Amino acid sequence: MKSLHYFTKILVNGLLLISFGCAAMPNIPSQSPTTSKGCLDKPELSLDSQNVKLVVLGEQMLTESGIASQSKSIGYTFEAKANQKLTYKTDKNVCIWVFTPDNQLLNTGVLPTTGKYTIQVSAPQGSTTVDLSMGLDVAQATPASTPNSSAVTSVPSPENTPNSSAVTSAPSPENTPNSSAVTSAPSPENTPNSAPPANTTATRISRPNFPKASCGDPLPTNPNDYPVDFYPVYLPDSEANLQLAQRFCQDALFKQRKDTGSIAVQVASFSNYQRAIEFKDFLNSETSGSTIAPPTRIQNKP
User: Fold this and answer.
1) Which residues of 12-126 form beta strands (DSSP E)?
2) Which domains, from first to last, does the chain contain?
3) pLDDT digits (tens, 9 = 90+) for 220-257
4) SS (H, E, C) 192-258
5) Distance from the first to the final alpha carbon of the chain
6) CB of 113 within 8 A of CB of 100?
7) How many whole angstroms separate alpha carbon 100 and alpha carbon 119?
8) What is the DSSP letter of 12?
């Protein structure tokens, strides 16, 4: 009888250990299905507007760096016109989605409409520093990269869309007459008539062209030429840069940049992005640090 009592006690204790041991096991969540490249069929995370940078793209490739991970996406937003060709490339294993102005997935390199586009980048595993090169109508470029065909198929929720109002908007016009005619951000349905030319970007500006009373473009006189975009060209804030700028453009002055809020020397403002690039390159041949700010759109003739 005593042996039977000990056997029964051991059996009961064993069953209790098995029961408590199973109860302590954590539940392992199942992972979402992924593509063969490790990218999800759609972004698992919404793109935070604080992690989105406004960039100006043109025929020369622009490279931006950022840290992307499974838990943090980074983004770049840019203005483009219908039928422009988007090119981007990176040597890192990352997931890239491109959203159209109406928050639809872009699955071709040719942009279907005019407005603000957003590139969202994340890492399929861990965290990585991404150097992403981007351009529009890049001369002699390889065929435009195509976003992941298995990327987002549904529209992001309104409060978390990449094109949310929290993303930096286009600045007000600077160094252009009658600035009251300018709107703070372009309307996608209005296409300006100042599309950058697709020819060479070689600088055709030389010192004998200066000095000038004003180096920028005037407002169009024909009402049919509106809306029109203006691209301000800046030098870093310093008295030396102001004096240098005024040797070329006598109306150069200190201005607060709308995109960054910092003070800089505005040298000129152009209605054609190609001319803005050429003028920026000319300034950089005389000094350094010249940049082009995001464009401002003037909807109607003042």
Assistant:
1) 52-54, 62-69, 74-80, 86-89, 95-99, 115-122
2) 49-160 (2.60.120.380), 179-298 (no CATH)
3) 888 888 888 999 999 999 999 999 999 899 999 999 99
4) CCCCCCCCCCCCCCCHHHCCECCCCCCCCCCHHHCCEEEEEEEEECCHHHHHHHHHHECCCEEEECC
5) 108
6) yes
7) 9
8) H
